Every structure is written in C-alpha cells, then in structure tokens.
Amino acid sequence: MNELERTALNEIMRTVTYIAEKVDKIEQTLEPQTEIREEIVSALSSGKGIVDYGIGSNLGPLGKRVLNEDEEKALGFLED
Prior knowledge:
- There is one protein chain.
- By secondary structure, the chain is mainly α.
- The model has no long low-confidence stretch (mean pLDDT 77).
- Helix content is 61%, strand content 0%.
- The N and C termini lie far apart (53 Å).
- The chain has two helices and no strands.
C-alpha cells in the first residue's frame, strides 16, 4: 500500500468515526424523548393528566379523557 492509499484510507476512517460519533449523540438525544413519550402515553391511557375539553366546551370532568387530533399527532398516533 503506497502513501496515497494510506492517506485515503485514514481520511475514510476519520470520516466514519466522525459520523459514528454524531449518530451516538443523536441517539443520546432521542432516547430520553422515547422514555418520556412512553410515560405520557401510559399516563393518558390510564386516565391521568390534565382534563382539557377544548375552548367553548360545556363538558365537565366526566368519564375518560379523549385525545384530540393535535394531541394524537404530537404523540405520533396520526401522521400529518
């Protein structure tokens, strides 16, 4: 292997290492969000949380809380 090939191989390895470090950082950022989402879904499905019937609703705090469309999208249940 000549010097040019070694240099090219070293640059490739540096690039791969850089990308792997960035992927690790992204995974560390996303991992807590997944745990939080699971806690939110669990709490809402068990009837816990803030009751919000929407503006102008004449419903009181009766029965189970139902997610509105925006909340379902935010939790990933619906696609845009």
